[in-house]
Design goal:
The protein is of the alpha+beta class and 96 residues long. 36% of the residues lie in helices and 32% in strands. It has a single domain (3-93), classed as Alpha-Beta Plaits (2-Layer Sandwich). It contains 3 helices and 4 strands; from the N terminus they run βαββααβ. It has a 4-stranded antiparallel sheet with strand order 2-3-1-4. Helix 1 (15-28) runs antiparallel to helix 3 (72-84). The longest helix is centred in the first third of the chain and has 14 residues, at 15-28.
């Protein structure tokens, strides 16, 4: 069953760290079956706290999503994300 990682950027603190994150995260996708469904496009918050931007990534299943997130390459990239902004990351199982 498919799985989705939803990443929302709540507040940017350090754009230079986010640039480093973007480069490192790109490399962390290698070897993982990931289909980007939304990638930092225009964002409109309809309810709840506003988000600056969002990403939605599709994976074959929950295990594949966790393998990417927990991979050494993404864990290294994530350190720049934490220094650059406040984020929320959600893993949700799909219906098919």
């Amino acid at each position: 069953m498919s799985a989705y990682v939803i990443i929302t950027r709540e507040h940017t603190r350090n754009p230079d760290e986010l640039k480093q994150y973007a480069e490192a995260a790109k490399g962390a996708r290698a070897g993982h079956e990931i289909r980007p469904l939304a990638f930092y496009g225009e964002t409109v918050t309809l309810e709840g706290a506003a988000a600056e931007s969002a990403v939605i990534l599709e994976f074959p299943d929950m295990a594949a999503a966790r393998a990417w997130y927990e991979s050494p390459a993404y864990q290294a990239a994530k350190q720049h994300r934490h220094l650059g902004a406040d984020y929320r990351v959600i893993l949700v199982e799909g219906v098919q």
